[in-house]
Amino acid sequence: MPLRSARARGVPHDAVHHPLFARYYARFSVSAETRMGMARVRERMLTGLSGRVIEVGAGNGLNFSHYPGTVSEVVAIEPERVLRQLAVESAQRAGVPVDVAPGAAEALPVKSEAFDAAVLSLVLCSVRDVPRALAELRRVLRPGGQLRFFEHGLGGGRVMTATQRALDRTLWPPLSGGCHLSREPVAALRDAGFTLGPYRQVMMPENGPALPSSYCVLGTAWRPS
Ligand SMILES: C[S@@+](CC[C@H](N)C(=O)[O-])C[C@H]1O[C@@H](n2cnc3c(N)ncnc32)[C@H](O)[C@@H]1O
User: Fold this and answer.
1) How confident is the model over 7-62, as pLDDT tens digits?
2) Any stretches that span the bilayer, and where are they (predicted)?
């Protein structure tokens, strides 16, 4: 399917430019697949999907090998140039067709109601405008289409949430490619008009120390029919 230009829609292709973070993430994320159990989480997140899927903020493409054969096509949007190149390489090894394209969550370069499902993993923490990104996801999903998500956010006790908020005001976003620790993905999905399906809290790493980025949620949401 021809992609519409994100630039024409007000967001440049390389709207996200974090080359140092991208290189760090490319290494860290690969070791986290086994060391932190991320491969298992990706498998669970994507199981049972079918039809046309859009993955937003695909990074270096670590989800690609976990899509089931019932998925006919994945359109993977990634705005960061270094990660996008790695995603292209990962797409070549995937078991389903994956088309990697530049673009940003806030102005997806695709037609409305074109996808059966959408995937977001560790992305809502980093987008500039969460409501706009989720409105875009609703636009591109068909009525009744589903969103699979794995996101980290606010969690833990008072000391932990205060720490997350303090880090968000200071060091964390500039050091982590624009990531925030104290966003609330489930509330954001609800506010955007998604119907929450089953979801559950997951600690990442599951058995390690609780870090400010450990409080995750894994689940499904639906665009109402
Ligand atoms: C922590 S990485 C996660 C990558 C991948 N989804 C994964 O599960 O490994 C965050 C990703 O969000 C992307 N990102 C940041 N801002 C974005 C935006 N406005 N629109 C789309 N993706 C964005 C980054 O370039 C990066 O690939």
Assistant:
1) 445 555 557 888 889 999 999 999 999 888 899 999 999 999 999 999 999 999 99
2) none
Residue 128: strand, helix, or coil = coil
Nearest residue (by CA) to ligand 1, atom 27, is 59
pTM of the model: 0.94
Beta strand residue intervals within 93-140, DSSP E? 98-101, 115-121
- Render the burial of 75-95: b for 16+ CB within 10 Å, e for the rest: bbbbbbebbbbbbbebbeebe
Fold of 7-222: Rossmann fold (3.40.50)
CB of 127 within 6 A of ligand 1: the answer is yes
What is the DSSP annotation of 58-105? -TT-TTGGGS-TTEEEEEEE---HHHHHHHHHHHHT-SS-EEEE--BT
Q: Distance from the CA of 78 to the center of ligand 1, in angstroms?
A: 7
- What is the CA(163)–ligand 1 centre distance, in A? 23
C-alpha span between 16 and 54 (Å, rounded) = 19
User: Domain locations in the chain?
Assistant: 7-222
CB of 93 closer than 6 angstroms to any ligand 1 atom: no
Rounded distance, CA 204 to CA 38, Å?
Answer: 8
